[in-house]
From TrEMBL:
This is Methyltransferase like 27. It comes from the Eukaryota. The lineage of its organism: Eukaryota, Metazoa, Chordata, Craniata, Vertebrata. Pfam families: Methyltransf_25. It comes from Pan troglodytes. Residues 71-161 form the Methyltransferase domain. SUPFAM superfamilies: S-adenosyl-L-methionine-dependent methyltransferases. The gene is METTL27.
Amino acid sequence: MAQEEGGSLPEVRARVRAAHGIPDLAQNLHFYDRWAPDYEQDVATLQYHAPRLAVDCLTQALPGPPHSALILDVACGTGLVAAELRAPGFLQLHGVDGSPGMLEQARAPSLYQRLSLCTLGQEPLPSPEGTFNAVLIVGALSDSQVPCNAIPELRVTKPGGLVCLTTRTNSSNLQYKEALEATLDRMEQAGTWEGLVAWPVDRWELATSELEVVSGISAKDGFISGIVYLYRKRKATQVEEVRSSPQPPAGP
Ligand SMILES: C[S@@+](CC[C@H](N)C(=O)[O-])C[C@H]1O[C@@H](n2cnc3c(N)ncnc32)[C@H](O)[C@@H]1O
């Protein structure tokens, strides 16, 4: 499937639709290996803006000068998030991804200080707890990619640091989105994270099938919708305060 150049919109739609339909994580990562040389051109054709949206959301809330922030880009792919982060001056960037092919593309432009192969859901992130001022996962939270049970791995965020996540909200991803939001709610209820932003975006990327455009509950002008979440990891003292504060009675 790998081609020298990205394809036309119908070809790109077919390719991304195929990726969404792969039921197994290992197969999906192989798919990304083969797609890697064409990935950036293809997602540009698809008008995929999640990296810019996530970075805008994160950088508005991240305190301190950009050059002092250490940031982890989880499921970094070819480095689209890093390219967005470097523009306003964020230079201390680490990336992890489960696809060697995608990492190879990310390595070439020297966007990251460190890149590691890591399959979320099967392996821990290769950094100690509390390492990063901010952690992002963009474009990888869906079925057969990063499972919701990998979210607690974002313990690598410093206390007081930020976590930025994106997912699609079109009909085919709604079940995953519900499971993700249940996981995020549990992180909040445990006092570990504090929700700052949930930003729905109508024009996330072009739909990959006519079905989504015609019958999708969120399709607009051929686009599917998505959402950006921003959380702050609480400091240990705040976690204690949340846990010791009176909880509302459980529902019936
Ligand atoms: C759609 S791409 C997004 C890449 C980049 N974040 C972006 O927005 O352009 C999804 C990436 O997630 C990676 N990925 C999917 N599941 C993963 C997992 N369980 N662990 C690590 N990486 C994963 C893929 O290899 C791929 O590079």
